[in-house]
Amino acid sequence: MKSVKAKPVRASRTKADHDSADARRGIQSIEVGFALIRELSLAQSKLPLKILAARADMSPSKAHLYLVSFTRLGLVVQDVVTQRYGLGPAAIQLGIAAINQLNVVDAAHKHLEAVLESTGVSVSLSIWGNRGPTIIFRLDGQLPVPMSVRIGFVLPLLSTATGRIFMTYLPEREWRSIANAEEAIAPGRLARTLQKVEAFRSEGITLTESETHEGFFGISAPVFGSGNVLCAAVTALGLSADVDLKPTGPVAVAIRDAARRISRDLGCNMPDLGPPAPVGGSK
Question: Which regions are flagged for Basic residues bias (predicted)?
Answer without folding.
Answer: 1-13
